[in-house]
Design brief:
Order of helices and strands: EEEEEEEEEEEHEEEHHEHHEEHEHEH
Strand order of the largest sheet: 12-13-15-14-16-19-17-18
Structural class: alpha/beta
CATH superfamily of the largest domain: Zn peptidases
Oligomer: single chain
Distance between the termini: 56 Å
CATH class of the largest domain: Alpha Beta
Number of helices: 8
Largest sheet: 8 strands, mixed
Strand content: 25-35%
Radius of gyration: 22 Å
Length: 386
Amino acid sequence: MTRHYVLIAGCAALLSACATVRSGCESGEIRLSQDFANAPGSACTRTGPASFELTVLPESADINPSPWYAFDIITPRPAEVSVTLDYGDYRHRYRPKFRQADGGWITLPEETLILGDGDHTALLRLDLEPGTARIAAQEVLSPEDRAAWRAAFAEQHGLEREILGASIEGRLIEALLRRSEDPDAPLIVVIGGQHPPEVTGALALRSFLETLFGRDRADEVLSRHEWLIVPDLNPDGIMRGHWRENLGGLDLNRDWGPFTQPETSAVRDAIEARRAAGHTPFLLLDFHSTRRDVLYTPDDAMELSPANFSADWIALLDDSWTGSGAAFERDPGHNPGLPTSKTWFAEIYGAPGLTVEFGDETDRDRIEALATAAATALHRYLRDQD
C-alpha cells in the first residue's frame, strides 16, 4: 500500500431508516465485505466500480459516541479504492487502522485524514495491492483471538479457567482464576471488555496481567490474594461490532446494581460466591478506553478499605514511571446514582473500585509501558501491605 487519503462523511437519517442494505458492495470485481467477527454490518452502497459508502450508525439511538467501523476491501488487481464513512449526527473519533500482511496494524498518517462538515464527513482512499485489505477504527481483536489469548495466558502462568455464565446469544463468559491457599485471602477483581470498541483498554489489560503474573508462579505477594479476572465481559457486543451495548441493548457499565443482564450478573455471582467463602472484596480494576490516559478513582474522602489505596498506588506508579510526561491523569469522584462497576464495588463492599482508561490514540508502546508500570506499582503496594 503506497498512498492513503481519508475523508469520513455523515447520514442525518434516523437509525431505523438506515437499514443494513449492501446494494452490490459484495459483488463485482472490487468488493467491500463486512463478513467477519467484529464488523458492524453498516449499510453499504456501491457508488462506483471502486468506491463505496458506509453508513456508520450505532446499535441504538442516544449512545456514547464511539463510531466503530470495520471492513475488508477485496481486489484482484492493484487499485485505488475510496470508501465514504457516514457518521450521521455523530462525529469522527477513531483514526483508521490498516492491517498489514504480517497481521500487525498501522494507523493511517494524520495528514491523510481530511474532515469536513464539523467532523461529520470524511473520505478514505487507498492504493491497494491485490488481495484483502482490512480497515477498522481500531485493531480488530476477534472473539477467537481473545479466547486464544486467555487460554495461552492461563496455561503459561498457571491460572485456572472457569465459565461464569453465558451471554444472551450463548457465548461463554470466561474467568481466569488464581486461587490462594489462604481461606481468608482478600479478593482482587480485574475486568475488561465491557465496551466493544475500547481496544486500547483490552491491549492494556493484557500487558498489565502479563507483567503482574509474569513472575514466579509461586510469587508470595500474589498468593496472598484471591484473583478473579474477566477480560472479555461483552462477547456479543464484540462479535457484532457494537459501539457500546450488549445484545440486550444496555451499556453493561450501567448495570452494576440493577443486574438485569446475564454478563454483569455472572460476575456479581462469582464475587458473591467468593465473599461467602471468606474472601473479602479488596479491589476492583475495570479497564476501558477514552480520549486520554486517566484513572477514575474513588474520592479520597470516602471511607474505604484498604484506606487511601488510590493515592498510594498512584504515588508508586508515578515514582516508577520513566516515560514522557505524566503517567495518568487522576479524576477522583463518586456518583451513587450511576451504576458503574466502580461505584457498585465501593457502595456494596466498601472497597476501592477504579476505572483504568487508556487513550484511543495513545501510542501502543506507551500503552504497554503504562500498563507495565501500573502492574509493577500494584505488586509493590501489595508487597508492602504486610
